[in-house]
Specification:
Blueprint: E1 5-10, H1 12-20, E2 31-37, H2 38-44, E3 52-55, H3 60-66, H4 72-83, E4 87-90, H5 94-102, E5 107-108, H6 110-119, H7 127-134, H8 142-151
Parallel strand pairs: 1-2, 1-4, 2-3, 4-5
Helix pairs in contact: 1-2, 3-4
């Protein structure tokens, strides 16, 4: 199970997906403060709720180094997570997750966030959310969906 954290740093794909299923408030499940970088806020392209703050990594060199391997948004999120102790990064891109793991950051994907919401009692069932996700243009493997439903006790 994911650790609870003071700060949740979300990548663009997480914001977009949660927005599409009207569940952006799930970002509050893992932490007390939800944060995105200015790059991610621009990529998201919508007005953020007042409770999501926008921050920038203080050391731009972290981000520039990460951009050699990742896109700008993912690099900015990881760079910010490196500077924020007791944070958890929500990132769906496999390459970005591998980098986060190598850097020993706490991270999860959007599905992990949804599962944590169920396990913490914030959601009674995740199946309706999974069904909404399946109706979006986001594509996840059947195996991932089955794993999440099984872990949630809904399969």
């Amino acid at each position: 199970m994911l650790p609870s954290s003071e700060i949740v740093i979300a990548d663009t794909s997480c914001l977009i997906l949660l927005s599409k299923i009207d569940q952006l408030d799930l970002l509050n499940v893992l932490g007390r403060q939800a944060v995105v970088t200015d790059i991610i806020a621009n990529e998201f392209g919508h007005v953020l709720p007042h409770w999501i703050s926008v921050a920038k990594a203080a050391d731009v060199y972290y981000q520039l180094i990460l951009e050699m391997e990742l896109d700008e948004g993912e690099a900015s999120a990881i760079a910010l997570a490196l500077e924020k102790p007791n944070s958890v990064l929500i990132i769906d891109d496999l390459k970005g997750r591998r980098v986060a793991e190598r850097l020993r950051l706490d991270y999860s994907g959007t599905f992990g966030l949804i599962l944590k919401a169920k396990q913490s009692g914030a959601l009674k069932s995740i199946r309706p959310l999974i069904e909404k996700i399946e109706r979006t243009d986001f594509r996840f493997s059947t195996k991932l969906i089955e794993t999440i439903l099984r872990e949630a006790g809904e399969l």
